[in-house]
Amino acid sequence: MIPVSKPSKRIQLLILFATFILLCFAISPSETNVLWRLPPLLKGLPFIINDFVRGLMFEWFPVQVYDPTIEDYESKPLFREITRAISGFVLFVIDLVRELMLGGKKTIVAFTSWDFIKENPWAQVPALPWTVIAGWAVILGYKLQGKRLAALAGFTTVYIAVFGQWVPSMQTLSFVLVAAPVAVILGLALGVWSYKNKAVESALNPLLNVAQTMPHYSYLVPVIVLFGVGDHAAALATIIFATPPMVRLTLLGLKSVPPDVVDAGVMNGCSNWQLLFKVLIPTAKRDVLIGVNQVVMQCLAMTVIASFIGAQGLGSNLMIALNSLKVGSGIEIGVCIVLIAVLLDKMSLAWAHKQQDYFVTHSLIERHTNSLLIVAVLVAGIIFAYIGTLIFEDGRNYLYLIPHNKGITTAQYWQAGVDWVWDAFFFALKGFNEFLITQVLFPMRDLYLGMPAAATFVLMMGLAYIVGGFRSSLIVGGFLLFIAFSEYWDRALITAYMASFSVLVASVIGITVGTVCAQTSITSKAILLVCDFFQTFPAFIYLIPVIMLFGITDTSVIIAAIVYATVPATRYTVEGLRSVPQVLHDAGDMSGVTRFQKWISIELPLAFPHIMLGINQTVIFALFMVIIGAFIGTTDLGQLILKAISEPQGTGIGLTLGLCVAFMGLAVDQIIRTWANDRKKMLGLA
Amino acid sequence: MPHQEAASKDRKPIIRCASVYKIFGRNAKSLLTSAGGVIDPKVAYDAGCIVGVNDVSFEVGEGELLVIMGLSGSGKSTLLRCISRLTDATAGQIFIEGEDILTMSGKQLIELRRNKMGMVFQNFGLLPHKTVLENIAFPLQVKGSSTADSVNKAREMAELVSLNGRENYFPRELSGGQQQRVGIARSLAVEPDIWFLDEPFSALDPLIRREMQDEFLRLQGVLNKTILFVTHDFDEALRLADRIAIMKDGVIEQLDTPANIVLNPATEYVRKFTEEVPREKVLKIRSVMEPVNPAEQLSDRSVSEDAIIETVAQLILSQDKPTGVVDADNNIVGTLHPSTVIDVLFGNRSQKPMQE
């Protein structure tokens, strides 16, 4: 037997903590001491980025462009022309889709001119009656899964229409309908490319990591600078955010194709293209479609944030409602968003899991049932709409297009409810709020701010070294170094304290709930369903109830973060505990363990690596939420990002801040994930 | 080591391997050049390489069924993958119908695969999202045949492997044996001249395996293709092969007909396999018959030289005179004494003495 020569990990950890505490006490705050705070060497980075982008947009490579208004050639920078062209195209497509659904004139203008419209007032694209879209959604739901999905589709569309949110909902939907396919195709292409080319895969991996951990609205500023403000910019930002999961899942799916199937394809004489499109992608269909599902979810998650750069739809309406504290209508809009999110999620998942049916011979009617149904619904809807013009007064044709905010609304009831809660629990909530802030949060914040940089570095790099060796600690060190050299170290610490508090509470709740529910298979399935349901909510939704109860404070953000982040903690706990191999349960039983002993000595240790991966997710989620909570006026990085968006030189600042947040998440991710994977391998679970 | 490297004189060589090497590892090529053709597995391992195929040369004649047999790690699948060029050999030449496939361009290779080759895989390799019929028609679709033609041919093939009635099933709805039938039908759809089978029956239960072997022999009787069949099962090899190549550590230990291998194992390793084989189940009369002795009187019964000994042993033993052996034209070509048969059945073939 080879004797273990490394000192045991426990001793290493003890030494680490001892050193850390020593450093905290030894180094006192000072402006000049490098060990307290590193000099902001990267202070200039935002400006470098700004200058670079400005140069690119306004000066680089001028080309002659014909300008019809002055009927002469003008010199314009190439890059700008490219981005403007892209913007124009994207805007056109979005408007086209929108007008198909809601009616309008812009598409016709694109092909003719405004003068043409003036002369011919009949020239406009008619809207599709909402009944038609509702009918189509029901048919689609039924075809994809069955009665339940069809019922959900019906309920969602009717709800949206009846509550007067049709126009903004369709605006949001049109935005998703444009952004999602582009992200899917782009993700698929990149996924295939990295499957075929190992170098591309290694290069793409860190980029994807950063892209997925950067907060949503870091992307906004560079997109605004390059593409302007409006729906098209929002669509482009969404595409950037939604593509990484598609790339990852495509790659995963392609790698999981059984080697025999690939060999069979090759031996049957497939060319490269045939192999890709006839063998690889169809066999990987399930994972690819799960990627599509993720893309759609990301698109919806961006709705609110996209409203910052001028995207019309539910997102901007929600923002307006919340900002003016009209919580009632905010809730209604929130429900709309959630319903759409759940519906699209279930539809795309149903598509992914759908087993194909093969029919050999059909009569004409049978083969075209689908097309016939679609046309039938269209005709019926148009007839209804026409009848509607006869019944209802002008502008309020309920069978055609229910105008914005002219439907039923229950906002006043919600508002009344909120007011009642506010009145009834005011003192209790206020007391709790104050207690939390003064006794817990502020002391914690001071604790974090009181850490000298040297101590933080030692702690994080030390942990990384113990867990993953030299390479890990270098990676973590690199991430932290970037943040330390920027001007934002202190802000990062504030973000960190809020996130870590949330993570702590969320983990405790999540692991407890998860453990309890993992005991029987029924409760496990139930809690996983609940987790699925909550995870379809765009993060922003979580802020609505907490703003209601706690107003605009740090507490709201932390509580929202806790709720949001508990979901992955719960889910991974349940999954981890349920996936302990049955043979180990049996072995334990035959050794005569009590229930508790089994939990402590068998289930927890084996489930722990998986649970830690859940905690990893919890960290990311908590960070996200904390950043989003910047709306509520916290003093962390999120707030700075928000400010940066409104500044003209904001690109550089926004990107740098975004990178800081991303690197924080990635540093923690590096430590947790390396440890969990190692542990899994050791337990033979990998 | 006795190698019957060349194909039998009456068959022209369809597949010919000349000094094929396959070495895995980054230093493969340099190892090969420095070793000058003689690779020692231990030396290779120290250099960070693993030897898959080590200087293999042989031929397969037209219409011949060559079985490549070996245990895990012997290099048999690697050799097949080199010949089908799913993997590129490190060195050597592989001729298919006279052309060296290692120098072929991608396009030529695709043409070859679309028209001349068919392959059956251990884990079936069926496309899960296509029906049985669509799977069988796949190579035809890839080639560019019209849908009507592909479907017709596919139906024919399904009939050939007794899967008619299940054309619209998906692979997940079929048993292992049925899935492999689809694999077989698919590999035959383009009517290839050359048929590769990589442990096709290893993933099936023993009873089904026997059925599939019978099926396979029946098909070969009808189609008469040039076949390379890889297996780890010696009994399967004996049952099916015209010739067997036994591999160990990337080297062919013996390449010969089943009868010769059983009668004259070339190395200790081969002997381990043949020891347990009941010779009377494998050998034909031809291998053990004696020359005609004009002085002897023969019994009035006779046996064919091609018969397996086991099938006629009882007959010969019940005669009081030696039995005549006839060829296909009923001419007497040899005799067989009961004592010879007894020797074959019960003779001392292992060196180990009986325990008291």
Please explain how this structure is put together.
The complex is a heterodimer of chains A (about 675) and B (about 350). Chain A is an all-alpha fold. Helices cover about 75% and strands about 0% of the residues of chain A. A two-stranded antiparallel ribbon of chain A has the order 1-2. The longest helix of chain A is centred in the middle third of the chain and has 39 residues, at about 410-450. A 6-stranded mixed β-sheet of chain B has the order 6-7-8-3-9-10, with helices on both faces. In chain B, strands 2-1-4-5 form a 4-stranded antiparallel β-sheet, with helices on both faces. Chain B is built from 15 helices and 13 strands. Chain B is globular, with a radius of gyration of 23 Å. At the A-B interface, helix 12 and helix 13 of A face helix 4, strand 6 and helix 5 of B.
- Unreliable parts of chain B: 351-356
Q: Structural class per helix/strand content of chain A?
A: mainly alpha
The oligomeric state is heterodimer
Distance separating the two termini of chain B: 37 Å
Unreliable stretches of chain A: 1-5, 358-363
Biggest interface reads: A-B, 21 and 33 residues
Order of strands in the sheet with the most strands of chain A?
1-2
SSE order of chain B, as H and E?
EHHEEHEEHEHHHEHEHEEHHHHEHEEH
In which order are the strands of the major sheet of chain B placed? Answer: 6-7-8-3-9-10
Characterize the main sheet of chain A: 2 strands, antiparallel
- Whole-angstrom Rg of chain A: 28 Å
Distance between the termini of chain A: 25 Å
| Biggest β-sheet strands, sense, barrel of chain B | 6 strands, mixed
Q: How many strand elements of chain A?
A: 2
- Summed over residues and divided by their number, the pLDDT of chain A gives a mean of 79
Would you count the extended β strands of chain B for me? Answer: 13
* Radius of gyration of chain B, CA atoms, in whole angstroms: 23 Å
Number of helices of chain A: 30
How much helical structure, as a percent, in the residues of chain A?
Answer: over 70%
Strand content of chain A: under 5%
